[in-house]
């Protein structure tokens, strides 16, 4: 009798786990369909963003700048590094629709382009991912009010997990 009762409990647990997993997968598909966004849903990234804090320990201090312009078919950006009076373009950036999904493309200077597929897009969050790229493999733009933006980059370098958070303010 104990064996029968234990079997029934085990089977019930397994069935409910399968149902929960099915619901979980269904929810992920819903998020994928409805939160990958459109170009207008990332228009809040437009503008000039300045990070004066992440690399201010360097001598002389270094500022990072991302400058984004919204066009009818894309959001185009440029990443810059400012040290003293010297400004250097570090990368060209583009966000556009590819196969009905937002795609983030980074082209670091003198390197090949890297594309990232959107995972989540809301009115304050834009997350993209490319698991083949070592660092960053995931980039999150996080709106922190009307004048602040965090850019969180995650990935690994030489198999060591790394994360970098840049704190930008609107310039």
Word description of this protein:
With 171 residues, the chain is of the alpha+beta class. The chain has two domains: 1-35; 39-170, Calycin beta-barrel core domain (Lipocalin), CATH 2.40.128. Helix content is 20%, strand content 50%. The chain contains one helix and ten strands, in the order αββββββββββ. The chain has a ten-stranded antiparallel beta barrel. Strand 9 (148-157) and strand 10 (160-170) form a beta hairpin.
SSE topology:
Layout: H1 2-35, E1 47-51, E2 62-70, E3 74-83, E4 86-98, E5 101-108, E6 114-121, E7 125-129, E8 138-143, E9 148-157, E10 160-170
Antiparallel strand pairs: 1-2, 1-10, 2-3, 3-4, 4-5, 5-6, 6-7, 7-8, 8-9, 9-10
Q: From the 3D coordinates, which CATH architecture of the largest domain would you assign?
A: Beta Barrel
Shape: globular
Computed over alpha carbons, the radius of gyration is 21 Å
| H/E element order | HEEEEEEEEEE
User: Taking strands numbered 1, 2, ... along the chain, how are they ordered across the largest sheet?
Assistant: 1-2-3-4-5-6-7-8-9-10
Average pLDDT metric? 84
Question: Termini separation (Å)?
Answer: 73 Å
In total, how many beta strands? 10
Task: Supply database-style keywords.
171 residues, alpha+beta, Lipocalin, 2 domains, 1 helix, 10 strands, disordered N terminus
Overview in brief:
The protein is α+β, with helices and mostly antiparallel strands.
